[in-house]
Design goal:
This protein is mainly α. The protein has 17 helices and no strands.
Length: about 400
């Protein structure tokens, strides 16, 4: 038993960052749930959490890829605001159809990412300088395009990008019965069903991966940790989906976030291009000598970031129902902070998609909880800065201790 305890302790110490993030998120949520007298986890506030942080999470996925490759993008907030302004002008002033506007906006973001990636990858200009210039350029272009004024409102079809909900397909009689059982006025059966399916998928993939690792003799997560982590995640997911089911169901942006998270988690962990990006960030010279086209990977990482920033800009504009000159201001700080809190290394080569998403939720819960408590924006900025510093210090301390 002593050997088992020792091995469990060693495993936890070597994976403290991964489990520490989950523990930190739970602790922060419990704290704000208590001090806000239960307001944090009310169905309407959980929905607001997803709506308020959707664009942060979406951009954090792209920022993770950029940072893992050994670069950084300071322009994402400005690009987000500029694309939102561009979409507003097209829809409100030029009367362009929503579908055409969305495609044009995504293309614009992709081209912006390509332009910045070109200078970073092929002209070897530091990404900090290129994207700092981009931040200033696109902030100025937003002011010019909107002429210093807000433009809106948008048609309902565009607002559905952010404010829409997945409709319930269950029969009315069944949903009425579920509502009566849950003690709420209405109940979205589809949302709860999606939660159950998601939990079943998490358990199945976890067991499948453990069986695969055992078959090939790969060292795996201790069973106690696997069971505890699966129970916590599954329980939290069912709780959140139940709360959403008693309100209006699953927001459209949550579906987009989940789909993108799954795609990027798969691409970064299970594909050749994902492994090459990590190799690039770990040692660019070694990656180049091994035949990896490093310039192309860096270029594509910025193209990807531009596309996701454009998508975030559309979602943010749709949620506000207007485009403003200040949209996206300082958002890049929250995005970068989410990635670093999630475990990414400033030197590149390390970081996980799930970590970035959890980091974004930590920032989001803190923002939401402090706003409910009426804490001023000045103190909020101080607290978030200290949390970021603590997260990075914790990461550096662990690496130094293990090294």
């Amino acid at each position: 038993m002593d050997t088992t305890n020792k091995s469990l302790g060693d495993y936890f110490r070597h994976h403290m960052r991964e489990y520490g993030l989950l523990i930190a998120l739970i602790a922060i949520m419990v704290f704000f749930q208590v001090v806000t007298d239960g307001t944090l986890l009310k169905p309407v506030n959980i929905t607001n959490l997803f709506l308020q942080n959707s664009y942060i999470i979406i951009m954090a996925l792209g920022m993770l890829v950029v940072i893992v490759s050994g670069n950084i993008d300071l322009s994402v907030g400005s690009v987000m605001g500029f694309v939102g302004a561009f979409a507003a002008v097209m829809i409100v002033e030029w009367q362009v159809p929503v579908s055409v506007t969305i495609l044009a906006s995504l293309l614009l973001g992709t081209l912006i990412g390509a332009a910045q990636g070109y200078f970073v990858a092929y002209w070897k200009i530091p990404s900090f300088i290129v994207t700092l210039a981009g931040m200033l350029v696109f902030r100025g272009l937003s002011l010019w395009l909107l002429e210093g004024q807000s433009v809106g409102p948008f048609p309902k079809s565009f607002q559905l990008i952010s404010t829409g909900f997945v409709p319930d397909i269950f029969p009315a009689g069944l949903t009425d019965a579920l509502a009566a059982m849950s003690g709420s006025r209405n109940f979205n059966g589809l949302s709860m069903a999606l939660g159950v399916v998601a939990v079943a998928f998490i358990i199945w993939t976890g067991l499948r991966d453990r069986a695969h690792n055992a078959k090939y003799g790969i060292e795996d997560e201790p069973q106690a940790f696997f069971v505890a982590r699966t129970v916590i995640i599954s329980g939290a997911l069912l709780f959140v989906m139940f709360k959403l089911s008693t309100f209006r169901g699953v927001p459209n942006v949550l579906v987009s976030m989940v789909v993108l998270t799954v795609i990027y988690a798969f691409l970064t962990a299970n594909t050749t291009i994902g492994r090459r990006i990590y190799a690039l960030g770990g040692n660019v010279k070694a990656a180049k000598l091994s035949g990896i086209k490093t310039e192309r990977l860096i270029f594509l990482s910025f193209v990807n970031m531009g596309l996701l920033a454009a998508l975030a800009g559309l979602i943010f504009a749709a949620r506000l129902n207007t485009a403003t000159p200040k949209a996206g201001f300082a958002v890049e700080l929250d995005v970068i902070a989410a990635v670093f809190i999630g475990g990414a290394s400033m030197s590149g080569g390390s970081g996980k998609v799930i970590g970035a998403v959890v980091g974004a939720f930590i920032m989001g819960v803190m923002n939401n909880g402090m706003s409910i408590l009426g804490i001023g924006i000045d103190y909020q900025q101080v607290i978030k800065g200290l949390v970021l510093l603590a997260a990075v210090f914790f990461d550096v301390y662990n690496k130094t201790k293990q090294g």
